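Technical annex, item 7. During the second reporting period the consortium partners agreed on a shared format for inverse folding records so that results from different sites could be compared directly. Each record opens with the tokenized structure and is followed by the designed sequence. A conforming record, contributed by the partner at site C, is shown below for reference.
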């Protein structure tokens, strides 16, 4: 459904976070490319695993997935997703993006805010060993977030898949090997 599907396929090929039978959360699911890839990779269309997606924009139904029309950033957004999960998630994917303003610094801060929200959610729902993949803008991940990711995951890398336009400022952070929830705040 979208060019983004190829980005996710390329990242999964490199980092291997979409495993058969896994539970996957797709934040910012529209138009559905990442959801399609996740369903196919884990076998959800054959009754293995689970894919739950949420977006502000409607997404045409995808066999093997549960799609929510709503704003993940609303107070009840995360709880709506959690209520549909059949257990801890094996991966939380976030391709969420705020509408671009054209002001580089503002756009970076808005994208990073969404990334931090997705990460806070991931810490609540991920199973030990799980993965977190989120869009960031060139300039990478803010240092405070990067420190937290390195604390909570065995491996943290930045990725710019070949399917991403070379002139695009977008990149992704790929964190694998979730160490489990922590009660310690930064």
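Designed sequence (site C submission):
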């Amino acid at each position: 459904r979208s060019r983004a599907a190829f980005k996710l396929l390329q990242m999964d090929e490199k980092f291997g976070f979409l495993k058969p039978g896994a539970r996957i959360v797709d934040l910012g699911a529209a138009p559905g490319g990442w959801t399609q890839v996740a369903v196919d990779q884990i076998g959800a269309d054959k009754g293995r695993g689970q894919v739950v997606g949420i977006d502000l924009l409607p997404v045409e139904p995808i066999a093997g997935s549960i799609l929510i029309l709503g704003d993940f950033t609303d107070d009840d957004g995360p709880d709506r997703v959690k209520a549909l999960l059949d257990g801890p998630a094996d991966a939380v994917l976030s391709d969420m993006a705020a509408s671009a303003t054209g002001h580089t610094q503002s756009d970076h801060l808005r994208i990073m805010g969404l990334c931090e929200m997705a990460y806070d959610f991931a810490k609540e729902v991920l199973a030990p060993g799980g993965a977190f993949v989120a869009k960031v803008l060139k300039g990478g991940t803010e240092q405070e977030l990067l420190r937290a990711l390195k604390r909570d995951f065995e491996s943290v890398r930045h990725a710019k898949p070949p399917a991403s336009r070379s002139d695009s400022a977008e990149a992704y952070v790929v964190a694998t090997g979730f160490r489990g929830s922590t009660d310690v705040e930064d």
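The mean pLDDT is 90. The chain is about 35% helix and 25% strand. All partners now use this format for quarterly exchanges.
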